[in-house]
Amino acid sequence: xxxxxxxxxxxxxxxxxxxxxxxxxxxxxxxxxxxxxxxxxxxxxxxxxxxxxxxxxxxxxxxxxxxxxxxxxxxxxxxxxxxxxxxxxxxxxxxxxxxxxxxxxxxxxxxxxxxxxxxxxxxxxxxxxxxxxxxxxxxxxxxxxxxxxxxxxxxxxxxxxxxxxxxxxxxxxxxxxxxxxxxxxxxxxxxxxxxxxxxxxxxxxxxxxxxxxxxxxxxxxxxxxxxxxxxxxxxxxxxxxxxxxxxxxxxxxxxxxxxxxxxxxxxxxxxxxxxxxxxxxxxxxxxxxxxxxxxxxxxxxxxxxxxxxxxxxx
Length: 314
Prior knowledge:
Layout: H1 2-15, E1 23-27, H2 34-48, E2 55-59, H3 66-75, E3 82-87, H4 88-96, E4 107-122, H5 130-139, E5 145-148, H6 154-165, E6 174-177, H7 181-189, E7 195-199, H8 204-208, E8 212-217, E9 241-248, H9 254-268, H10 271-280, E10 283-288, H11 289-309
Helix pairs in contact: 2-10, 4-11
């Protein structure tokens, strides 16, 4: 009887999925934006593919992710189950906010995605093309109100680069920063601003529904599924791609970092994740290890130079 019971227990154990870890992923922004979408898509893929048995997502908005970053670095030290999403926006926000906590205070794991920034207006706007927007900016730069993500982030940088490329003062750009994509979207649809600028996936539903008009995309190639030129095609010499990453807590061991990286890589290669990339219009830019560390350092240096160039950092 005891042998039968033991055999049953062993069989049951072998048939039960073995999960690597239960993760909590912080999206350092309000619900609805790119980081929130990234964290919740990670949650879906990690759980759906059996990589993790339980994944929770938390939102800590504010200051381009630097409030969440500071909380994460302080409260999750040496916790191998804690992850935070970030990216280009956070790099810029750290510099513009002169944040005492930086990406040096966490453990970067991998770059996950790239995405075009979209420039949109409400369907009822008299701005029909990017040329119309350029004309308004040249006429009165400050009269054009932009709604986008955090100050110093990729949306803000792109707006500044557009201004510089068309020969107007980028420091005069009237940019209104919102902590989440939902808030910015409400302002655009409500006519509180002239133009919206953010990751194209944040506008996709409204573009497809005809509520927003997509004027242009920021990348050097068009985005499949969207009928809009690149900025360069429209005569504005700007090419920018937003990117997003995931990091782990500070103070983890090399073995823990390797295990987390293995889980994230398995997620990034999974059918669930790859389907989500296609659906959301995200580009697979996965990179980890020393190559990612080197690329991150290069991106931080380049972003600081751009921010100085457009007057957002002294």
